[in-house]
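Researcher: Here's my situation. A collaborator sent me these components and asked whether they could plausibly form a single complex. I don't have experimental data yet, so a predicted model of the whole assembly would be a useful starting point for our discussion.
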Amino acid sequence: MRSRSKRTIAFLAIITAVVLSIAYLLPIYVMITTSLKTPYEITQRTYLIPSTDVHFENYTKAFSLIKNAMLNSIIVSGTVTVISSFFGGLSGFYLSRFRSKFSKVLFILVGIALYLPYQAILIPLVQFMAKTKLALTYAGMIMSYTFLNVPLASILMGTFFMSIPREIEEAAEMDGATKRQIFFRIVSPMAMPGYASTAILVFTQVWNEFLLALTLSTPSTTTLQVKLAEVKGSFVALYNLQMAAAIIGVIVPIAFFLLLGRYFIRGILAGALKG
Amino acid sequence: MVLFHCPDKISQKIRERGEGSKEPGSMRDKILNFLVFLLPLLLVLIILYGMLFWTFYISVSNWRGTSPNYEFVGLKWYRMMFRLDRFWVDVKNNLKWLVVGVGPTLFIALLIAYLLEISSLRGFETYIRTLILYPAAMSFIVTGTVWSWMYQPDRGVLNTIWRFLHLDFLQSGYITDPKTATYWLVLIFVWQYLGISVIILQSSFRTTELKEMIESALIDGASRMRILFQVILPNIRGGLLILGGLLIISALKVFDIVYIVTFGGPGYSTDVLAFFMFIATFQQHLVSLGAGLSVVIFLMAFIVVVPYTVYAFRRWFS
């Protein structure tokens, strides 16, 4: 009886693995083969069969189209990640260590802000950035994304701080340490994996964000996603170029995911479970 | 009782600097704590909530065109919104997103997560988790670009495959067929969120109490399916609530997929509130109408966020 059910499970597992493999590998396979073909080959409907005649020049062309936008995205996402993680650490420490009525109210406000649809603040934000001319520089985007990501970073960091044993802090407090010394010298160094998770999550989120980027960016600050959408729109039939650009565009987050997957998953879990 | 001691170097430094007015508990210490730990978060919250109220205010003003107009006109733009055909198409489509996007994702994720837990096939779990989680690192713009090509009716991937396999009856217009287009868009969403859903559910399986309950149910000879529905399901309500909330909010504010794959078309058959909000505000310059739509989106998300936040609050402060 047991062994029969074991065999059933193994059978189901194999079926699941096959189905999911097709569903999740086919798009990647399609991306790669299409990106190496000529438009003519694509019209022949044989693009799914890889040929020996590979066209890497699609990649050079795609890269030259998106390289400025990619640089903008690196600057914006990188800066936002550093600032948000830093402020997120400070706020997360407050939310997890200072217990008062006020911090409870604050937690509720942060919790709601965490899932605020961007639409709810988009119009004032764009209006403000346009009026102050900040929209013309990186500063406008960096500020906007920072506002929107500090709540997430705070909750994530707070969650990680909660899992750190208090004894060390209590000992330091007895020695007369201030909260700030405890934060910067004891808790933060111990929460480095938490910072890594937070940073990866914030970076991916900002890198992939589209709505705000679309409405806020100017030609000189266009981010990668906006550019990719533009490439798709202006080279309608050139699927090879679209796919090559898309592949270049996902290299950075996919590299994070594959190399630091552990932190990525921990971040998703901490963000979803909020404590 | 002090269980741990500060590393000597640190505590020595702390003692050297810890003299005078910076002492913990002093007024200066409290002010510094406020400035360092609280002020940044407070500023961010004031800005975010300030902008939220600003959006509310714009929705009851009379702002059309490119320059702001804050003349108060009450519910004028809401009344107009409710009269618009397009608004109700959007509401219906958003409901489709909720029904087709959230339920099936939860269900499939539950089955996969359970299978991962009970299967002893070596490498199976790592492989599946990597396989279905990688789309979480990609943007909707990228997945939308790829899936547009999959769906392309004439030369696209899926129809080419069906033709090749002589399964021509499976061919479809996909995103060009106004009747079904939205569902094909939702499929992209399901595809992309499945991985996250599985790992969240898996982590909610892994509490000690639940493990013990499953053990004893197994000893009693309960079948695997019965265990899933009668033991596990009632005991992971927290995890389901969290995941359900996450999926609902994501499905409610969906914009990128619609923008990149169909741009709301054909006609406005795949339009959703978030997309209409963008068009109304930034293309038609009916800013007050756009703000009204934002308020609607916010309120719908708010209904979901509240129980979710209450739940998180209880856990956080317990």
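Model: Some features of this prediction you could bring to your collaborator: Chain A touches chain B through 112 residues (CB under 8 Å). Chain A has a mean pLDDT of 88.
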